[in-house]
Amino acid sequence: MSVPIRRSPLPHFLYYLRTSAWNRGHLIVERLRTPRYAIASLFGIAYLGLLFSTSLFDPDLATLRAGDPLFTASAPLVLALFASWWWLWGGHTDALALTPAQVQILVPAPLRRPDLIRFRLMQVQLAIVPSALVLSYLFGRGGLPWPLRAVALWMLFTTLHLHQASASLVQASALSQGAMGWRRNRVAIVFFVLAFGTLMWAVGQVMFEVRAADSVEDIAASLLSVLASPAARIVLFPFHLVLAPTFAGSVSAWLLPAVLAFAVLFLHYRWVIRTDATFEEAAAAAGRRRAERRLAIRAGRRSKMADVRVRGDRPAPFPLSPTGTPAVALFWKNCVAFSRQMRVVSSAVIGAVLVILYLLMVIMTGSPSDAIDTLGLVLVASGAILTVFGPLGIRNDLRDDMTRFDVLRSYPLSSSSIVIAEVAASALSLTALQLALFSGGLACLAFGELATGHFMVLLYGFAAAILVLPAVNGISMAIQNAGAVVLPAWVQKSGTRGGGIEVIGHQMLTLAFTGALLIVALTFPAVAAGVVLLRLGLGGAALSLAVIAALVTLWGELAIAFTFLGDVFEKTDPSEIAT
Amino acid sequence: MEIERPDRIEVESLTKLYGDVAAVTDLSFSVGAGEILGLVGLNGAGKTTTLRSVAGIIPPSGGTIHVAGHDLAEEPVEAKSRLAFIPDEPQLFDYLNVQEHLRFIGRIYGVENPEAPIAELLRDWELVDHAKKLPDQLSRGMRQKLAIACGLLHDPSVLLFDEPLTGLDPGSIRRIKSTIRSRAAAGGAVILSSHLLHLVEELCDRVLVIQKGRLLFAGTMSEIKDYRPDLEGEGLEDVFLALTEGDP
User: Would the CB atoms of B100 and A19 count as touching at under 8 Å?
Assistant: First the structure.
């Protein structure tokens, strides 16, 4: 029978991290033998090389910024606002997240809670150290030697992570232990409430001053004066301490701030390790959420869409009749998936952002009418931009369903009807989103002055969009789905492991290839419409006929695409699909 | 003087709440040394929550859990060092191969000279040819075998099995049955959660039926059958279905 372990498990954690890193590297090298990974990696490296060589990463930028008093004064405020967010809402999400495997293997293991926390802190260093090195090399070549800038950035990132972890532990303790948890953490909670109150007061002052300011220079001066007030200085002092080494311009100016920043880091470490909170459940839940988010990102649902928690209790966008065309059920299933991925909270946030945007524009322009015109244009432009980028993000079609290829093929449906149902779902979802944005834009423009006298033209344009967008989006989605059907081995399945440069390269390749195909596909309807206009001139009837000609060509292309994709889908070998 | 602690599990008034929803309510039971307890219930009855609480994965909302005499909340390291949790859905480290998993577990649990038992477990669970493979390269059954091997490596005296037969081939099913019996015969306390009632009937000394997180019945196989005299001569499956009748 094993005896309880008293010695430190840190060497075992190091063994795990080292071995995992080695195996992961080995796996990446192995994968490079496959052409699709090798080519994608080359494109990824080329893309990153291009990105890093642009003026965006001007080595003098950091020095310039570091010398900018507004930047150095407001950076602690930004950090403080982030920290407040962690304390209020976001602290428990990722800082101490454990993967499902770590929960299943490490949590039942005979380890003390601080050891589990140390393990998580060690694991996070695998991301922090390379980030600090790369960022210091890219941004920090002016004035301070880049290794020192790297140390400064490492201390900054590590302290921020420890602070986030502290917020997580206090939250976990307060939530899991009830009144006792609140009592145990009362010092931290009272400290936070006081600091947060002062911070909000400072932010309120800044907003008040900004409203009274006449120019950008006035806004900057107001911000500096508020941040220089004693209360703001006291609250932001710890954030100044952790940022100071990063902004240092010379070795001598770096040394003392670095010692102080390290002291802050060490105090945070002691705080995290000594907090005896039952964080495991929150860490497991956060790990699960993170795993889901990663799967969503790999499936192409990026950013906020990736953070979606699918709600099964949300009603379907339309009811499914128990009888009727079977393919409609497939279409319905994908529409349900799309609607359940859209979060009410996200929609509320978007609405709030638009309102804030409007208010800011009113403040800046001084004219509610100009502001509402600008807002209207932003909404219309957003809808138009979605024509290009929407098909990359909205994937409730074969790109998600190729993981269920066997099930799809087992349905008593023809291959072309499966393809039509799948493509129609994502194309019409995108169209609905665009029309909603256009409607909002038109509503704003109706109340503004910009469209005065031209509003009927805009309404005609909207009517044309209702007719044309489904077909255009259908073509775009058909091209995207062609990738999944024609080259299944090249399509990243939802949930498959992968990441890094080859994924970036793969995305760049997909974007370039599908963009070129879309241009070719839209050329024919444009030519058809152009021929009609050349023959009949620019009259109202001619315009209507041109739209009809373009539509007929688009639908013809779609018919050809569906027939082709159906044939390919029928012949696809499941073993070709990427694993 | 060191007090001899019996290898057993004692659960007293275990309650686990998820918000307002009670997954387990006021559940008490014990498992003695050398005993195999079957944990049965319908889907969502709270079996996995109970097992995960006993394994120390989920902190209970109320109640106490003692493993081998150690309070899981107060002496977690001592309690967990005697315990193995073998889940129904093994979650393995993405980038550790089979052998490295076992080495890591050996180190975490402080197994003395782990190479010999690792080799034995690899041989017993037919993992020798897969020793250098990562979890992604293993079949469902092989992953389950690795999880079992990881659980047995530190020679635990308290074993928690959650649907242990999932994905196993007939040979491995026989082996796991024999492992459960031999561990109990050696003085271990075993909880076996399964929907396979013939397995529970075959292996377990006592059975615990839970329904909607509450204890519905606890007793030996003969006691549970006596509980419903109208079903005399029927198997555990019939008695269980009669007991949980009407619960969706």
Answer: yes
